[in-house]
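Hi team,

Below is the intake form for RagB/SusD family nutrient uptake outer membrane protein from Flavobacterium endoglycinae. Please confirm the fields before the structure is written into the shared record.

FORM ID: S-0412
PROTEIN: RagB/SusD family nutrient uptake outer membrane protein
ORGANISM: Flavobacterium endoglycinae
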Amino acid sequence: MKKIIVSIIAFSLFSASCSDFIEKEERGTQTLENYFQTAQECENYTNELTKRLLLPNDWWTLLAPRVTNEMSTDDAWMGNTGQDSGAHRPSSQYLITPDNMGDMNSIYTAHYYTIQSANIGLEKMALSPISETLKNQYMGESLFVRAYCYYELVNLFGGVPLYTTSLGTADLKLERSSAAAVYAQIESDLKESAAKLESAPVAKDGRINKWAAYALLARVSLFQEKWAEAKNYSNKVITEGPFALEADFLNIWNVNNHNGVESILEAQSSSVQNRDLGSALPTLSGARGEDKKNFPSNDAADVLDGWGWCMPTSDLENAYLSENDVIRRRSTITKWGEAAYGDEVLNPTHKFSLNDNKSGRICRKYYIPIATRRSLDKKDGHLPLNIPLIRLAEMYLTRAEANYHLGGDALADINIIRARVKLDPKTGISGPTLLRQIYKERRLELAFEGLRLFDIRREKDPTTGRPVIESLMGPNGTFVKYNQSSTDPYETTNLREPQDKGINFDPSKHLLWPIPQLEIDLSNGVIKQNPNY
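The structure came back. Fields below:
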């Protein structure tokens, strides 16, 4: 059989054992054969897997492409008009090619590093002499990590090479599996993960637990239009899990409320000054060009000065305005010169460089309050903002969408979400109008939380039956036409990012990103490209 050398997988071989993803001093001649002998070694390995998935040391490996996916939707511009946008432009402007993928290359590569690492760990931990209780916990967490990697890969690229054992140079023979096969493996991993984690403690410290597995099962079931399963798993998390909606929507992203009552899984952060454990997201997507003179204190300690990527669109703002949704709008978007919501006293007129900002807006969810800024000697890499990856509100919206297709009560769940932000309940709507409202509630609730691109690719327009993204993007897309006729005073006066965002979208290919050409070349063409690339 022809040998396929896939660079993203071939990384591991022996070096994957402990040199890259496990940073640990060697003890004598430590190898895969003598590692995993203690509970501490198994826990350290699992912790590193989780960190690699949720909080990688290098911001460009996973954080940048996840932000770029947001920029590829109607929610966000690239935003930074003062620096080179080469990493983000291919996807966000739908100019992507297999040879010019920007930072989409890095997420493809990074996830296969983690998958191979998870496979090694699962094999070795199964033979470890530790207790069955701890073995189940660490293997359950590792299975979730592998499933999450495949979940992102299949939604970004479609069917991808699928493997669940550690590979060496003699057995790299992988072609692409179908998307259905990848999803089947994700479901299998998550079900096994939940079973192994059944008795594990549900600590609110960022550790993966069975509820994260059930919640991700709800999400991937929804994405496959498995309505009954989506309802079952989301209902299980809602009714049996130890979670509750935050009373204050803004509190979900509060730097002083890590792992709050609504959080099912968060990427952890810390501001410990002698460790690089902070989140890079508030820097990557923070306001660019802040100046101490624009703060009441006139103190440089109040300045964060982010990089200015992933700025909200006026189209997203208009979606909030159309619902009179003040709380979620102000918790998601701060417009130039307005008070930072929840930080009105110390930042009553948040200003930044309009020359470097496409939309005159920043994402409030990524904002670091002034009091926290003042407590930090080091800011870059030391910002204490946890990033929610799965939270309870999504489960309500998943159950609502599933109920719509199953003939259940979809209105009840969206009205629970609306009530939290003091909006009147929706009544008397059904059919396509109700489905569009469910889609809209997902957009307003979950903006900038990593789901918008996946949603508009999978959601079906009830009028045409086609993916929603096709009605938004392309020469005749409503979002493209809106921007071309917009009179927004910020977006239309800074044209260093083109106003025709999304015009290059082609539905014959852009429902997925291309497979990196390097991987196809290294496979001698056995890995096939996505259509029309």
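SUMMARY LINE: The longest strand covers residues 263-267.

Thanks, M.
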